[in-house]
Amino acid sequence: MGYRYIGSKARIADEIIEYINESRYMEHGGFFIDAFSGTGVVAEKAASLGWQIHVNDMMASAVVMSEARLLSGQDAAFSNAGGYHSVIDLLNQLPGKKGFIWREYSPASARYQETERRYFTEGNAMRIDAIASTIHGWKKTGSITEKESVLLLSDLIRAVNDVANIAGTYGCFLSQWTAQANEPLRLSASVLKEAPAVYRVSNADVFQLESGANDVVYFDPPYTKRQYAAYYHILETIVRGDQPPVSGVSGLRPWKDKASVFCYKTKALRALAELILKQKARRVVLSYSDEGHIRLEDLVDLLKPHGTVALVGLKAIGRYRPNRAAVETSAEVNEYLVDFCRKQDKHEQTTNS
Q1: pLDDT over 50 (residue 350)
Q2: Sheet architecture: strand order including 199-202
Q3: pTM over 0.70
Q4: Which of 9, 55, 115, 263 has the maximum number of C-beta atoms within 10 A of its C-beta?
Q5: What CA–CA distance (Å, rounded) separates 154 from 63?
Q6: Is 102 helix (H, G, I), strand (E, B) or coil?
Q7: pLDDT score for 317
Q8: Residue-wise pLDDT tens digits, 226-240
C-alpha cells in the first residue's frame, strides 16, 4: 500500500521494529501501541512479528489507512457481495456523481463560488463522490462490515492520491494539471494478510490514550509546524462522508480543533515530556529527527529523573520529496529513537517479583 504522506516511516520501519524487538516488554497481554499511526507502516511491521497492535490517530483517515494494513482475507471476505475483487470491479464501474467533492474540489467549484479549485478533474471528482457515497451507503445498510468499509475507504484513498493535482499534500492544489491528475481514477485491490492480526483501533487525541505496564508505546509525533489536519483535509472528508463548511482558496474544512500542540515550537518540548511521562507503560519509544522543533538532548534531560533513557541514531534519509523540485533541493535528515524505560514503583516491583 503506497501513500504520499509527510513523515512516513516506510523507509526506516524495519530499523525501528528491529531495535524495539531486541528487548520488548509486551508479555502478559501487552500491546504495541502506535499512538500517531499515520499510514500504519510501523504497526504493520510489528504485527508481522505476531505482536498485538493498537493503532490510534486523531485523523480518521489515518486510522483507516492504518487498520487496512492489518486486515486479512478473513476480516474482509465480502461474502454478501460476491467477494473482494467483485466489489472493486463494481465500484470501478459506477457512473460519476455530482456530489460534494465535485462541487468543492474540481473546476466545477467556480460555478458555486469565486474560487476555482483544481484538486481533481471533474470526472475524477465525480468518481470519488460516487464511490465514497456507495461505500458509506453499504456500511449504513449493513451490506458490508465495518472492516470491509475500512478496506474499501483505504483503497479509495490510495486511488485519490494517485490522481490528486497536488505537490504532495492537500494544503493546496497546483495551478496546472499534471499528467497523473488527468488519468482516470481507478481502485485496485490491496494485498491482504493470510491470517488475522490481533488488534484494536481508536481515533482519539493522544493525551486521552491509556497504556498498561506491559505495553510498548511508540510515538511518532509531528516534528514541524505542518498541521496534518489541514494538510489532509480532503482525505478526512472522504473517510467521514460528511459535507463540512469549507473556506478559502484551499477549501479547508474546520480543523483548528485538531491542531497539534507538537507543531508549535514553544510548546513541543514540554508537551512531549508530559505525554511520555503520563504513560503507565514501562517502555516508551519516540521517533524524531534533527529537523524537528526540539533538541532531543533537552528531552532526554527532562526524562532522566524518571527512568533510563537512550538516544539511538538510526540513519540519514532524504527529506520528504513530493515533487521534482523538492527532489532537486532535498537534503538528508538524521532519524533518531528516544528509548525511555520508566522506573518501577514499589507496588510494581512487588507484583513482578
Answers
A1: no
A2: 199-202, 53-56, 32-34, 216-219, 283-289, 332-342, 307-318
A3: yes
A4: 55
A5: 10
A6: helix
A7: 66
A8: 999 999 999 999 999
